[in-house]
Design a protein that fits this description.
The complex is a heterodimer.
Chain A: E1 5-13, E2 16-24, E3 28-32, H1 39-47, E4 54-59, E5 62-67, E6 74-75, E7 83-86, H2 98-103, H3 112-122, H4 138-151, E8 156-160, H5 168-185, E9 188-193, H6 196-202, E10 205-210, E11 213-219, H7 220-225, H8 230-236, E12 241-249, E13 254-258, E14 261-265, E15 275-280, E16 286-287, E17 301-311, E18 316-323, E19 328-334, E20 348-353, E21 358-363
Parallel strand pairs in A: 3-9, 3-10, 7-8, 8-9
Antiparallel strand pairs in A: 1-2, 1-4, 4-5, 5-6, 10-11, 12-13, 12-15, 13-14, 15-21, 16-20, 17-18, 17-20, 18-19
Helix pairs in contact in A: 3-4
Chain B: H1 3-33, H2 39-47, H3 54-65, H4 70-75, H5 83-108, H6 111-119, H7 124-135, H8 137-152, H9 156-162, H10 172-181, H11 185-209, H12 213-217
Helix pairs in contact in B: 1-5, 1-8, 1-10, 3-5, 3-9, 5-8, 5-9, 6-7, 8-11, 10-11
The chains are: A alpha+beta, B mainly alpha.
């Protein structure tokens, strides 16, 4: 049977109302969002370290928390929930050895020491069994913390920015450990982070959290290709959001009016006159060499402007282009492309974009609600733009 | 040297230290864990014996232990002018030091560690004995020593509630006062030396308990190698 953790609660936190609703199965769900969005408090509510004002949290048949009109109020103490919690500050008991820490939840069991040793081996820490926490590096401490959480035989494992203080290389190893562990023990894992690279490295699904609520939840790449609204775009750091109006809809395409400029976009099930939010994929924008003919580009959108900033990267270069009408557009291209083009600030450039590179994410009337992802999207999910 | 006074002082101080430890730790826990209404007033009241003149404390104790007090009238506890009264006086003056020191130590224990223990299935009772108390032990022990040293040195209130009966209720500090009054300076010299030595040893012990600042701060060994 697939375990299922159902979370639905409200909690007033100063000026913010935390309103969480999601469910997690045997998978790694990433809670992603800016700090102060309520991610940690959500984990605390699940672990039993904080009591919501209202709601219901349950793991399969086990009720964790309930406070609803007409229902029996209930709060299962943290120690009875079997929810493991891995803190950012490691939170190892400083007066106990590595082995003592891992054996702590096993106290009273005759095989405590053997089991703790087995867990240390599983986390490749057996050679550090007699060290004190302050004698370990950050990555080692966090592995001890994971081994200790596992010793309590949790059904749910929570990670609260657990690896964010560690180097990238160590993070990668811990992410690999975590994915293996989750698959092996069919754990429900919730992983809180504000780092998108980490989200992609471990997550199966992504919940975008802002101002105390889930803006969107779904498979990682789904959320990225189909953000539900402009706020999700901002949180995910996707550039080139535009506000436009539908002018004409044909089976072949939709024509959008972007502040007076007409853009061809994929066909949509929207009436002419509808106001929409869309974005242009920065990696889908092509530059045209000045000496190339334009006739091959017919049917595509053509934009003109000039480079205002160029940021080289290891693999990808970033350009900021000011269009002739004043809008700014961000362009991303492989470092190996356009090596013959002088792309210094001030250089006039022509940009071309296929209609598929314009992603309409929501009619703007639905923006305020921040409800389910827009279903207006007829765009096929092909990532291959070449 | 007044041996009976020294022996009585040792007994009184030992029992008073046990009382100071038990009551002080309980009160410190109450003050750190429970947000009582008007807790600032309660804390201030508990600190009062530190600054009140011994005669004022002695006066209150006479009221509390003397005729007409609930202790005497309802429970028939009659300890005024006996050595247990010295224990009460020593406990009252030593308590604020214990409360202050152990309260700071308890408040310093990272609540994240206690939360971690909760998620690992520990009861509150086990968390207190195996996490909180061991981590706060230096501060608590310092409080016990300071409170005990203060109990040993208690003079004024003791004088008022024990009646200064040589051989029965006369503690070492009171005996020193007596010796000086009677111009037995050789006696006084020796007893003063003993008192000073014990107080010095106690304070030295407290200083030794204070963690060196860099050891307390350090969380991760900088030279530990990642593998």
């Amino acid at each position: 049977m697939v375990p299922q953790l159902e979370v639905e609660f409200e909690k007033r936190l100063g000026p913010m109302l935390l309103q969480m609703q999601f469910s997690v199965g045997a998978e790694i769900l990433v809670l992603f969002g800016p700090s102060g969005a309520g991610k940690t408090q959500t984990l605390q509510a699940i672990a039993g370290l904080m009591r919501p004002d209202r709601g219901r949290i349950a793991l399969d048949d086990t009720l964790f928390f309930q406070r609803e009109p007409g229902a029996r109020a209930f709060h299962l103490p943290a120690r009875k929930r079997r929810v493991g919690y891995v803190f950012q500050q490691y939170a190892l008991f400083p007066h106990l050895t590595t082995l003592g820490n891992v054996a702590f939840p096993l106290a009273g069991r005759p095989d405590a020491r053997a089991r703790a040793m087995a867990l240390l081996e599983r986390m490749r820490l057996d050679h550090l069994a007699w060290r004190m926490p302050h004698e370990l590096s950050g990555g080692q401490q966090q592995r001890v913390a994971i081994a200790r959480a596992l010793a309590a035989e949790p059904r749910v494992l929570l990670f609260d920015e657990s690896f964010s203080a560690l180097d990238r290389r160590i993070r990668e190893r811990l992410h690999a450990d975590l994915r293996a562990l989750q698959a092996e023990q069919r754990l429900i894992v919730i992983y809180v982070t504000h780092n998108l690279d980490d989200a992609f490295a471990v997550g199966h699904r992504l919940a975008v959290v802002r101002d105390g609520r889930v803006e969107q939840i779904g498979q990682l790449d789904d959320v990225f290709t189909r953000p539900a609204n402009r706020r999700v775009l901002e949180i995910l750091g996707i550039p080139n959001a535009i506000a436009a109006r539908v002018v004409e809809v044909t089976p072949a395409q939709t024509v959008l009016d972007w502040d007076g400029r007409l853009l061809a976009a994929p066909p949509l099930d929207l009436p002419p006159g509808a106001e929409v939010t869309a974005y242009i994929r920065p990696e889908d924008i092509r530059l045209i060499y000045p000496d190339r003919p334009l006739n091959r580009m017919s049917g595509q959108n053509l934009l003109e402007g000039q480079v205002i900033e160029r940021r080289p990267g290891r693999h990808l270069h970033h350009l900021r282009v000011a269009l002739n009408d004043g809008h700014l557009v961000e362009v991303v291209h492989p470092a190996s492309s356009y090596t013959a083009l002088p792309l210094l600030p001030g250089t006039p450039v022509r940009l071309v974009l296929r209609k598929e590179s314009i992603v309409v994410i929501a009619p703007r009337s639905a923006e305020g609600q921040g409800d389910a992802p827009a279903t207006v999207l007829a765009e096929p999910r092909d990532q291959n733009t070449a | 040297m007044n041996w009976s006074a020294l022996w009585l002082s040792v007994q009184v101080t030992t029992i008073a230290t046990v009382c100071i430890t038990a009551f002080g730790l309980a009160l410190a826990l109450l003050l750190t864990r429970v947000r009582l209404p008007g807790h600032i007033v309660i804390e201030t009241l508990l600190l009062l014996p530190l600054v009140l003149p011994p005669s004022v404390i002695g006066y209150y104790l006479l009221l509390a232990l003397g005729r007409g007090s609930p202790l005497v009238e309802w429970f028939n506890v009659r300890i005024l002018f006996t050595w247990p009264a010295a224990v009460v006086a020593a406990t009252v003056v030593g308590l604020p030091l214990m409360i202050q020191s152990s309260r700071a130590a308890l408040a310093n224990v990272d609540p994240v560690l206690e939360n971690a223990a909760r998620t690992l299935g520990s009861s509150e009772w086990r968390i207190f004995w195996q996490i909180t108390l061991p981590l706060a032990r230096r501060g608590i022990l310092a409080g016990v020593i300071l409170g005990g040293a203060r109990a040993l040195g208690e003079f004024g209130a003791t004088l008022m509630v024990t009646g200064n009966i040589p051989g029965r209720t006369q503690t070492l500090p009171v005996a020193i006062y007596d010796a000086v009054q009677a111009r037995r300076y050789a006696d006084a010299h020796l007893m003063v030396l003993v008192m000073t030595g014990m107080a010095f040893a106690g304070l030295l012990w407290v200083r030794w308990l204070e963690p060196p600042p860099q050891r307390a701060r350090r969380e991760t060994r900088s030279d530990a190698v990642e593998e």
